[in-house]
């Protein structure tokens, strides 16, 4: 992906691939300076992604990332400051239709990059949203995507949008439940309708704001129980709670971990209300770990 985007000079972090952890310091000097981000080539969902602020922490991050991935190539990338957003879209005959832009209100500054809250519609100004849509569409074309679902992650630095990731897939986990279209149609149904050549007329995203919180794993151990569920569900705006890790299972936080504890869902009149509901509900959960 990085190479294909580079051919078309898309705005993305400067990067270099490498095999041995002790190579990373010289490569950072080639792509710019610290801070940098080290990540395995073959993992996803922020697993093994680590920020490093100096030479010693870069070598340590590369060693750790390679251990997490079980060996193999690594990437070191320029760290891009700014707000992060996620774009959910559908390509139709090469034209990108943006279904939603999610704000990520929690800072994604590292040293690990655990995603928590997604809220849509975005609160960014219209000119920046236009830049996000244009950049995402051009990135899709650059890597040869023309049809089907697209999920992209971008960093916004001032008026400029930088591509962090773009992939031919829909949003991960249970996060798609935060989106509904038309008369209660799910994102999965929109994708299936498109793949079957069915009409998508009138399938606009619902008018009110919505969001999801990917409940983070606070520490390693064995999950005993998650309490406070009824209290969390009683918070105004909360429309769902799914705990996806059963009691008795081992919990491993990022960067080694590859999952979340569960998902909270909210709807409200405004994005700010959605965010507040998710934070309030999460604060009521008691996560008992042995």
Automatic annotation (TrEMBL):
Matching Gene3D superfamilies: ATP-grasp fold, B domain
NADP in keyword set: no
SUPFAM superfamilies from the UniProt entry: Glutathione synthetase ATP-binding domain-like (SSF56059)
Record-linked Pfam families: ATP-grasp_4, LAL_C2
Stretches assigned to the ATP-grasp domain: 2-196
Gene Ontology terms for molecular function: ATP binding; ligase activity; metal ion binding
Keyword Ligase found: yes
Record keywords: ATP-binding, Ligase, Nucleotide-binding
Name assigned to this protein: Unannotated protein
Source species of the chain: freshwater metagenome
